[in-house]
Specification:
One of its GO terms (molecular function) is methyltransferase activity. By secondary structure, this protein is of the alpha/beta class. It has helices at about 5-15, 30-40, 55-65, 115-125, 145-155, and strands at about 20-25, 45-50, 70-75, 95-100, 130-140, 165-170, 180-185. The protein has one domain (about 5-185): Vaccinia Virus protein VP39 (Rossmann fold), CATH 3.40.50. Helix 4 links the parallel strand 4 (about 95-100) and strand 5. The chain binds S-adenosylmethionine.
């Protein structure tokens, strides 16, 4: 059985093709931004968000070290995505990924919050292509994590099953609040 992070990457690899438009909603140290960049290639577009300058610096260095082109590294909340999305990319997003919680090795008080996460997901859902995918890796062991987890689950559970598949994937016998995946896939219209 795949662990949570490898499984999130598998889902991204199955969904993203060269030239696609994708979003890293929580850039952090840039591991996901790097994967997204490699998957979309030279002709694709990556929008990556974080509210900490350090994340942009780390990610820029990581992309450079892996010979990736410069990407749109945006110092702003993912909730403000519509202020940054080019009009030609409206309704054209193939995939987005969130890693919720705080950046390991950094300020643990800077965490993702229910309101901004749900606002970002709502905008992304609107601008997702048919067949597109949003992945949230939910870390919930820190203060505030349980609130974000519960609000998110309740919000995603209300998505119309005719339009979206919503998956929860994780291990239920691991200690210490194991992370899990919530994945939203936009279904073709019938
Ligand atoms: N995927 C990252 C990586 O590869 O290193 C790890 C992400 S870390 C778990 C969560 C990140 O979300 C932190 O860097 C934090 O600054 C960022 N964050 C918190 N609130 C945010 C918001 N409203 N918009 C964008 N990023 C946010």
């Amino acid at each position: 059985m795949k662990r949570v992070i490898p499984y999130s990457h598998q889902l991204l690899k199955e969904t993203i093709h060269p030239g696609d438009i994708v979003v890293d909603a929580t850039m952090g140290n840039g591991h996901d931004t790097l994967l997204l960049s490699q998957l979309v290639g030279e002709t694709g577009t990556v929008y990556a968000f974080d509210i900490q300058k350090q994340a942009l610096k780390e990610t820029e260095q990581r992309l450079f070290a892996h010979n990736q082109p410069q990407r749109q590294l945006i110092l702003d909340s993912h909730a403000n995505i519509l202020n940054h999305l080019s009009p030609e990319h409206h309704h054209q997003i193939t995939a987005a990924i969130f890693n919720l919680g705080y950046l390991p090795g950094s300020d643990k008080s800077i965490i993702t919050t229910p309101d901004s996460t749900i606002e970002a997901v709502t905008h992304l859902i609107t601008h997702l292509k048919i067949g597109g995918l949003i992945i949230l890796v939910v870390y919930h062991g820190h203060p505030g994590g349980d609130e974000e987890r519960d609000q998110l689950i309740s919000s995603l559970a209300s998505l119309d099953q005719k339009e979206f598949d919503v998956l929860r994937y994780g291990f239920i016998n691991q200690k210490n609040h194991p992370p899990f995946i919530l994945a939203i896939k936009k279904k073709p219209r019938k």
